[in-house]
Design goal:
Rossmann fold; alpha/beta; six-stranded parallel β-sheet; homodimer; 10 strands; 277 residues; 44% helix; 2 domains; four-stranded parallel β-sheet
Chain lengths: 277, 277
């Protein structure tokens, strides 16, 4: 494996760009290949069997790009598929749930007033899998976990309603139960939710720490690459990192969304037929 | 072609069951095969190329069920793909847009106070295609058409929020422009919208006629089958009609939704891998 090989990262759609942004901030020298499954988005209300099949197809596609490691940015795919794919391919494959769970336990423990009360929000699929709850309780058996599926938040983000009275209302409806439980930490268990972070923090109040698993998984991947001697060397030929984006549906929408949230312009987004992988 | 062969009908997901319901009411003796592309739903924010590819796959699948005719219940697929597929297969293929446009013109003309002012609501894809507008103006060049994409209505329906203050708010936001234009007729240009009909009618007021294209396409198909001598005869062996449902993702969700809106229980929903067709 070549240290100048790219990191692969994928999501059901464009939401995973929030993870790519954290990854680039953490490891600014790395080359990255992103895939967004925009022809089949969303995953969050689909079944484990279907999401697992999609995940295998995407990993096979990313292998054709000679990636040295893969981040499953999508929480739903991490919850449903990581366990089945992480040993099936000869490269490191990381999901967002384990690092997110660890970060949540750490943040909760840091609270002075902590009763280790952790909330988790996500899609139906992610919440239904209880993947966060299982891992959080494995790390800290004392913790109490409160789960809430928030299926309408993804469409609201896709509509760009990040700051809107209707968004505030739907957030209040979904999160009122977690607020009543006096959680101290809230896991943003979907790649779209960090874009709603200001609205969510406003509703939950300053005493609640929001956790974006993207930061933790980027740190974890850096450790994995470092241990394996696979961090890209600054002295490598062509020092400026290279970013490639692929999608399964039309490229324009991806480009628009990407350029709204990434700290640089994405110019070339390529469309592929993911069903053939 | 055998008159006892089933009618095929498909949609991006479960919404097309509203069309199946009308079809069964119109032609209670017909056998029906339904396909819902639940593994790739929704279509309404995907590209023409992708929706066209999906439509070909689904028609090829329905052909394996020996259907005698196909209704494209999905407005997005009708707008993007009907023109390309209707001559490509040796059986009648009907979309919902032409009959919906005709029904809207008829309803608008029946208004005493009419200025032939017709509103159309649908997904981004359906509205962006201007398919309704083009056909309405072809039928009645005097008409004025006012278009409005309502992308959040599908997720609200999928969440079952048919009667909810938040649904009323989002309907008011989407439809206020059409109301200000004093439309007399409103085309419900997405298979999910008939489930919001009470809320939409409440907001628009009694003077506006809502058009569900499902009724018109069912009537049109009956005419087509009658002309071709393909209406199922009541005296045919096994007079009770047979209904089969297929989906591309897990069957349970489909079964639940179907049994909520159909006037009979669906017991067997079969899952297939649509990517292989």
């Amino acid at each position: 494996m070549d240290s100048s090989a790219p990191i692969g990262i994928f999501d059901s759609g464009v939401g995973g760009l929030t993870v790519m942004r954290k990854l680039i901030a953490q490891m600014p020298h790395e080359n990255v290949v992103y895939f967004g499954d925009t022809a089949r988005v969303p995953y969050g209300n689909k079944s484990k069997e279907t999401v697992l099949r999609y995940t295998h197809q995407i990993i096979r596609f990313l292998q054709t790009k000679n990636v040295k490691a893969i981040i499953i940015a999508c929480n739903t795919a991490s919850a449903f598929a990581l366990h089945e794919v992480e040993k099936a391919y000869p490269l490191p494959i990381l999901g967002v749930i384990q690092p997110g769970a660890q970060a949540a336990v750490n943040a909760s423990a840091a609270h002075q007033t902590s009763g280790n009360r952790i909330g988790v929000i996500g899609t139906y699929a992610t919440i239904g899998s209880r993947a966060y709850e299982t891992l959080i309780k494995k790390i800290d058996p004392e913790s109490q976990v409160f789960n809430q599926a928030c299926p309408l938040l993804v469409p609201f983000v896709e509509e760009g309603l990040l700051e809107d009275p209707l968004t505030d209302e739907i957030i209040a409806r979904y999160l009122s139960g977690l607020k009543a439980q006096e959680i101290d930490t809230l896991v943003l268990g979907c790649t779209h939710y960090p874009l709603l972070r200001p609205a969510i923090e406003r509703y939950m109040g300053a005493a609640v720490t929001c956790i974006d698993p993207a930061e933790a998984v980027s740190q974890q991947l850096q450790n994995v690459l470092e241990t394996a001697g696979l961090l890209r060397q600054v002295g490598d030929a062509g020092a400026a990192p290279h970013y490639e984006c692929y999608v399964s549906d039309a490229a324009e929408k991806m480009t628009e969304f990407a350029n709204r949230i990434l700290p640089f312009q994405i110019e070339n987004v390529h469309k592929i037929n993911i069903e053939t992988y």
